[in-house]
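Suppose a colleague, Dr. K., hands you the sequence of a protein chain of 87 amino acids and asks what its three-dimensional shape might be. Before reaching for any lab equipment, you can write down a predicted structure in token form. Begin with the sequence itself:
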Amino acid sequence: MERSSSTHYRQPLAQRGLGQQPTAELCEELRGIARQLNRIGVNLNQLARIANATGQLPCELPAALSYLENVLRRVDASSVEIGRLLR
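The predicted structure, expressed as tokens, is then:
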């Protein structure tokens, strides 16, 4: 019988002494980050379209870039946590 992909990826973590709880929480955090990055990408594409059409940078651009920086900090923090758990 073939293992599901979630079982496949959880197995090595369980062998390192990690429970499913931290792994599940980290996976949910990463899914949330992926959704936010997708939304940011859509917003940045819209702002780029406006800039290209008008020749001016939209006033919303600084806020969008600030939000992107915050999400990237979360990505960094999650990466550090995953690395710590995998040791």
